[in-house]
Structures are given as structure tokens and as C-alpha cells.
Input
Amino acid sequence: MLTELTLLQFRSHRRISLALDARPVAIFGPNGAGKTNIIEAVSMLSPGRGLRRANTQELMRRHEQVGWKLRATVDGHQVETSALPGASRTVQIDTKTTPQTALARLMRVLWLVPSMDRLWIEGAEGRRRFLDRMTLSFAPDHADAALAYEKAMRQRNRLLKDQVRDPRWYDVLETRMAESGLAIRTNRAQALTQIGIAQDDAQTAFPTAQLSIGQDGPEDLRAAWAQSRSRDMAAGRTLEGPHRADLMARYAAKNVPAAQCSTGEQKALLISLILANARALRGLPVMLLLDEVAAHLDVTRRAALYDEICALDAQVMMTGTDANLFDSLGRRGHYMAVSDTDGTSQIEEISR
Output
């Protein structure tokens, strides 16, 4: 569980410290006040670039430009991640410098943000990131496999662009890619199995999504890459493999592809998947970040969402522009009001 969080020079926050417990956190305030910046900071307690996919320079307060730092206590471990101007992000756990991938073993961080509302109708890259974020929550070593695959593929692509034809170079890289690619495939398939079970076993107000993986490439990746070197060389890149996979979803009750559903149904499917992901991780430390999740839900659906959130074995942080959006959460929630004064965010805890 995340029990303490401090933001230093992060986005619009000069310095804030939060004490958290098991209650769902509802953060409200006007647009631009700094609500999303708080949950973005929490998302940086996981591997990668966080829920906005920002680079390290974008996370600095514009007024000072001295870098940024986050400190957190997660299950008794002291976590610190930071970046100075022009430098890469660093991570320390219990004062020891560690790769970002180690964060995935401390706490599973899931999120749903408004930019994901078009997930089912835009390009495969966003769905692939969504799939890998779910997969990472079940298999923390998935990040290591993905990094190994990307590194070997970049080296192979460099050979292709340079028109290198010596098969020995390709043999070595394609073997590495096949090993890590198999791990990626296995992890993804197991994650979808767990999500499916969590959906089937739940009483939920949100629709069930049937998931599958497409465009994943041939079964024997190593042989396929060896045969496609000429074609890949003409393209200057590797054309097949797990890096081209796509997450496919269908609205189960209607047997309709998610891309053909209404905007409201697509949002409901996303909420259903995030909740199922959190349920499937029962017994593990989970943080669920929901940005503006209630904005397009009617009163009945909001009440159902909060009931399901409170039943989860997970911490939850939500944002919204109006405190009234969280009325049906009632005394079960931990409320924080965020405001902005001359470009600096202020936060105040509210009793309800």
C-alpha cells in the first residue's frame, strides 16, 4: 500500500505531502488546478513514462526548472524517483539505485485517462501499450523481456538499414529476439486469461469484453525473421513480431467489435477491463488511477462504479472537476480539493 507521497517541483506542485490509507481518494477542483498532476506522480511509481507518457523535462515546474523529485512509502519501502534538467530519470528503493523495472515488483499501478477513450478506434500502438500495462501487472518481468526484445530489434533494424548481409549477425540477434518474444507472448496470453476469469466471476454493472491478440506474427519467429531479411531490408525495419501485435475486443453481450460500439459503450468496456484487472490481482499491492472517470457516467453508473471500487482489494485515486460527482461515494472516500494560485497548485483535505 502507498501510505506517503511527496511531490517536489513536480508539474504545478512546488511541494506537497500526502498521507494515504485504504479509502478511495477523490481529488476535485477546476480544470488546470493540478489534479491530474497528482495521479501522474503516482503513475511514475511504476516503470515507464507515466500516464501522460511525458519526458522527464516536461515533469519539471516551469517556473523553477531545477528538476523534480517524488518520494513515497510503499509497503514499508522508501522509494525515490527524480530527474535533474537534461538528465534521465533515476530510481532508488531503500536508498539503493535500481532499474525502473524494479518498481513493478513493489506495486501494480493501473490507470484510465480520457486520452484512452478512443483506444478501440485509433491505432494499434495505444492498444498494445494498454495490453502491456495489464500484462506488467501480472508479470513484473514482462518489462525486462520487452526491453531485451526492443534492444535486439533496434540492433537488427540498424543492420537492415545499413544493408548488412552477413547472416551471422542476424542469427545472433534473431535468437535473442525469439527468446524474449516468446516470453512476451506467454505473458500477454496469461494476462488475458486472468482478465477473462476476473470478468466471468464478477457481478458488475459494466459490460464484459472478450479479448484476443491479433497480428502477432508467425509461430516460429526465428525462422520467419530469417526468411524475411530481404523484405525487411527493403523496408528498413522488422515487419513482423510481437511489436506489431494488436489487442482485439468485443462487447460480449452484443457480440460486436469494440470499435463498432457507441462512445459510451467503449468507455464502459474500458472501465470493465480496468476493474477486472484490479480484481484479478487480489492479494497484491494495487493502485488504480482514474482520471475524470465519472464525467460521462450517469448517477446510477457512478454509484455502481463507486460500489465496485470500494469492494476492490486495491487503493484507488480518482479525479473530477466537481465534488458533487463523488456524492454517492459518501463517507467511504478520502477527499482532497485542489486549487491554483499564480501557477502553483494548492491542496486541502475535505471532510464529508
In short: The longest strand covers residues 2-10. The chain has a mean pLDDT of 95. Residues 1-107+285-352 form a domain with the Rossmann fold fold (CATH 3.40.50.300).
